[in-house]
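Reply to dn_fold:

You asked what the input looked like. This is it:
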Amino acid sequence: CAVSTMISVAAFGQSGQENVAEIIRRSAAAMESNWKAAPGFSYTERDVQSKKGGAQVTKTYEVALIEGSNYNRLIAINDKPLSKTQAQQEQQKMQAEVQRRQHESSGERAKRVAKYEKERRQDHAMIAEMAKAFDFKLTGSESLNGHDAWVFEALPKPGYQPKMRDAKVLPAMKGKLWVDKQHYQWAKVQGEVTRPVSFFGVLAKVSPGTR
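and this is what came back:
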């Protein structure tokens, strides 16, 4: 639309680094708005799991808020819809979970909802940290799923100090970020670990090459 075009032109009317800062600022604001609105919507989530030997398993879920917290219902494996029998089983599992939640005690409900809200806050904080942890360089534009997007190279910002445990991996990563030109949404993010990172001493470790 005309307003979106004017905003884009205004952003690119400044010097290069200011353009990047403005785009990242607008995209962070869009992510903030999404986070606040998310509990009111159902959506699909596609998870890719890598196994030893390079094999991958892709699972797609329908995610909906049920009795105060999310429920993930499996709807596809390796991008193929479930069989009729599998779909019925997943529907029965969801109905059983709904029944369980409807009959849980007030203490059980409070604990479940508190866990969900904690995880949402952690996800939100991690996204905010990503915007602070990297220096972004505009490298060009691409069409992504039918939308024009800016493409940024992301490199660790010198002197960045993680504010949360999960963000400890960020200074050891490099990546790319695609930002939708019309709505300033993060359309795609890629990251790669460049050096070993340990969590909880030696109990957990992220190795170079992890994506």
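The chain has a mean pLDDT of 84.
Hope that clears it up.
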